[in-house]
Amino acid sequence: MKKPALVRAFSCVSITIRAMSDTAQERLHHSHLERAREQIIDLLTRQQVERELVSRSEVSKQDVVAQLVARQQQAALETKLAQLHPADIAFILEALPPDVRETAWGLVRPDRRGAVLLETNEAVLRALLGDMRPEEIAAVVRHLDSDDIAELLTELPEELSQAVLVRLDRDDQAEVRSVLSFPEGSVGSMMDLDFLSIREDASMEAVLRLLRRQKKLPAEINQLIVIDRAGHLRGVLSLDQLLLSDPEKEVREVMTADPTFFYTGDDIDDAVSAFEKYDLISAPVVNLHKQVVGRIPVDAVVDAIKARAQSESLRQVGLREEEDLFAPVIASAKNRWPWLALNLLTAFIASRVIGAFEDIIVQLVSLAALMPIVASIGGNTGNQTVALVIRGIALDQLGPTQLRKMFSKEFGIATVNGALWGAVLGVVTLALYQNLPLSVVIAVAVLLNLWVAAAAGVLIPLTLQRFGRDPVMGSSVLLTAFTDSMGFFIFLALAAVFLV
Fold this sequence. Notes:
By secondary structure, the chain is mostly helical.
């Protein structure tokens, strides 16, 4: 039965209001974090100033006053940090300069430091852990789950990681070593070892009694993993099925017998795609014998998506993930040298193309004003195509058939846009320079360069992937160089043939 129009209208308004409310809450939360960061910086600054003033006071009074000032400042800072969520503390630490960050980090409660470390980026994480002794790190991470400990240890040098590992409890050591044994980027390296399993021959009432005896349920749990006597995966039992089914029934009568699951060696990108496609909250993880060894929760998938997005956004502009916002100037400059060198090389190639047509540009100066337009519009089209191809590569959607269809589609789009905007640019050129042949030349040059951009946008990332290179890192630079050089060449070559 369809809803009345008025009800549907109110529903739409309600959804819009909720969306606006969520956005407003996000802005409010971000504003709150910014204020907290400024307050902490202000407290740390005042602490430094007051220490300097105390150091200038009389020696007899200096010790007493210094202790009072230090205690007041430390109490205020500790209170402020204690009120924040670990993720918010991590946000503040990432935004602080290294010297101030170290002071603030020292005021975070020891039992919360592990949770804060899990939320910080790689650069800040390595900086904080690099200044700590192995026993200090072991004491900090001891409060975390084994999979979280393994995640942090992967960011440490091998010697330091082993030194921390031997200082953990034996049970934690075994579980952490198990997680660390899986390749980076695999499901096994990100799985959660904390899961609840039940037997398929148990009654629903027995399962409920089992849950009531648990002191704490695993995070992001929406289903129980069903196994047989040998620990093999048999299915999953959702909490809905558990609560709404007849207590006398056995688990095998109610469970979902063909759940989505992953092997420990599966790529984490496959898990990300499955979670997005099937709206999963958690999924079992099995070994090669299909015995359940863990589960992958949605928060691990979200972290993987976030890490991949951040990595790609940095790599597109030639930055490394481990570069700190406040890293030393020389170190940051060295990280960017390869990127600048490659840009310099591609710019030199484009300049040589222009240099080959110097005589023609001298005869028709308007070419110098118009040729950047041809190059830039080709680069824009090519970058759009590159983005689609990289997305297709990431989602493993580009088989031979799909690739042919995509190439045909992009070529068709380039033809439509090239004809339309080439004609627009031709009309503008005619109005500015009163030169009909020049207008036709630039219109044709735009069309041809968009064809080149579409082809390059498809072929460059695929070629980089074929040779084992990162398409995200190299595609944009190569595409810009190619479309610029070809744009200049096409436009100036047409001008040389038809205008001079």
